[in-house]
């Protein structure tokens, strides 16, 4: 089979990625077939397999795309130097609000947490665990900087708090697509103010 021109290959690849990202986000790995993706993209299965050798490979590409969204909206901004500790912590909640407004998550992303436990999907589960570990480290670094500056006091809870915040991020992000932006903002505002009330040594509450 002759290769398509580069621009046609790009268009086909984008159609596959966009449709697969949406379907996997809604229905998970087991809930989506290659046939469903190729049909949604307006392609044959052969055309899809031209770009991806397996469903696992396509899901992995979509999973990494999701992780890049989390990083771009939340964790990379938290990693940026500068700003006082409170401001860097607030970037977490501000980033969550931005993520929920991203068109790519409009139809839901809960399916990416529905990775079956099987040898076929072991690489997918490992990718997800690695992302969560990196994200928890980014949060820990920011919280630790606040502790070092005397702005936060987590006692012995720093590591546990970092992991707990990852769970909170996931718990908040997954269902909130069904709520209005105002509802989302109110929920995130309560979570941010609760964190600051519990651990901010200054007693100040964030403007968020």
Short description:
With 208 residues, this protein is an all-alpha fold. The protein has 8 helices and no strands. It has a domain at 59-199: Tetracycline Repressor, domain 2 (Orthogonal Bundle), CATH 1.10.357.10.
Detailed description of the structure:
The protein is mostly helical and 208 residues long. The protein has a domain of 141 residues: Tetracycline Repressor, domain 2, CATH 1.10.357.10. It contains eight helices and no strands. The model has no long low-confidence stretch (mean pLDDT 87).
Note the topology.
Layout: H1 6-27, H2 34-40, H3 45-51, H4 55-79, H5 85-100, H6 122-148, H7 158-173, H8 181-199
Keywords, separated by commas or semicolons:
mainly alpha, Tetracycline Repressor, domain 2, 8 helices
Uncertain residue ranges? none
Averaged pLDDT, please? Answer: 87
CATH superfamily of the domain at 59-199, called what? Tetracycline Repressor, domain 2
Biggest pleated-sheet summary: none
**How many DSSP-defined strands?**
0
CATH class of the domain at 59-199: Mainly Alpha
Strand coverage percent: under 5%
Q: What is the CATH architecture assignment of the domain at 59-199?
A: Orthogonal Bundle
Return the structural class. mainly alpha
CATH fold-level name of the domain at 59-199: Tetracycline Repressor, domain 2
The arrangement of helices and strands along the chain is HHHHHHHH
End-to-end Cα distance, whole Å, is 56 Å
Outline type: elongated
Q: Compute the gyration radius: what is it? A: 20 Å
SS element count, helices: 8
Helix fraction?
A: 55-70%
């Amino acid at each position: 089979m002759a290769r398509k021109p580069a621009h046609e290959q790009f268009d086909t690849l984008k159609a596959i990625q966009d449709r697969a990202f949406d379907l996997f986000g809604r229905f998970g790995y087991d809930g989506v077939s290659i046939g469903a993706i190729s049909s949604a993209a307006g392609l044959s299965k052969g055309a899809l397999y031209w770009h991806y050798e397996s469903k696992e490979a396509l899901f992995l590409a979509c999973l990494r795309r999701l992780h890049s969204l989390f990083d771009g909206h939340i964790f990379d901004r938290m990693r940026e130097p500068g700003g006082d500790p409170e401001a860097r912590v607030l970037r977490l909640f501000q980033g969550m609000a931005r993520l929920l407004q991203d068109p790519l998550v409009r139809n839901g992303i809960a399916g990416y947490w529905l990775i079956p436990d099987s040898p076929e999907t072991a690489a997918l589960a490992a990718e997800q665990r690695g992302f969560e570990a990196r994200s928890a480290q980014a949060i820990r670094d920011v919280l630790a900087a606040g502790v070092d500056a005397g702005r936060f006091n987590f006692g012995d809870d720093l590591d546990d708090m970092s992991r707990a915040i990852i769970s909170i991020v996931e718990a908040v992000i997954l269902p909130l697509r069904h709520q209005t932006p105002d509802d989302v903002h109110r929920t995130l505002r309560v979570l941010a103010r609760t964190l600051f009330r519990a651990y901010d040594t200054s007693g100040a509450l964030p403007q968020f």
